[in-house]
């Protein structure tokens, strides 16, 4: 059962320049919300501007941007309530733990975790007032960390934990906290991930290259082969809209059969068996000897 969207309500979506964030901003606007859509470039603002969507300059690691957005929300000229904060912005990385430079780990956590915490802290008083929702976009990587997903999955596992704590803290105030866990989604993220992986592969020592070249190749090939099974950003946006609108939302929504299967297996299988299954699935994607 869903609630009727109130035309006088705000929804905030971070990372709305592309992919899931852009699709979510459009879906929520279509449903009647006034969407504040976070982007980082003027050209993205121009591309997103349409009835029901107000682009806002928002780098979630920049405290000034967050303050400006908060001022916009608390000083809304029509005093509109905030129905939802969708913490969607994110950056991908597929690199072995050993290879990812420590300052890059820190930058990744700044975006994929601390940025969402900062946004939530800034807007929680408004969400409490309206009994609104925080929708955190995690990933199947928030439940299972495959090889080369250590940095990315680290941020998503942490986001899952923060979401659980926040949900239990804020439930008495009437704010719902919902986690959305997509599997593979066809967005710019895949291209961005492979560019970063290629750049970092080029910095590996010869010893690291011997350890990880084949693995990185296999992960890239496996990801490419899964694209045809992956979800569209619009399909994920529909689930996010459900999390915003459902009268009794679930605490978690997986999106896609891959996400449902992997999160289920991770829950019921011992580590040794899951390790064997994921290694077997990856094996055909390693470069053939002599190739
Ligand atoms: N694609 C998948 O397979 C998949 C699967 C599971 C979960 N997810 C999650 O879904 C979310 C959206 O990903 P997507 O697939 O739609 O990727 P995407 O198309 O690459 O979009 C990522 C968005 O995050 C924004 N962003 C990056 N750094 C930011 C920062 N510091 N401040 C504000 N915005 C920032 C990007 O803005 P710019 O354009 O300005 O860089 C872009 O709008 C992410 O949290 C991702 O982890 C994706």
Automatic annotation (TrEMBL):
InterPro entries: NAD(P)-bd_dom_sf, Sc_DH/Rdtase_CS, SDR_fam. It comes from the Bacteria. Belongs to the short-chain dehydrogenases/reductases (SDR) family. This is SDR family oxidoreductase. It comes from Azospirillum endophyticum.
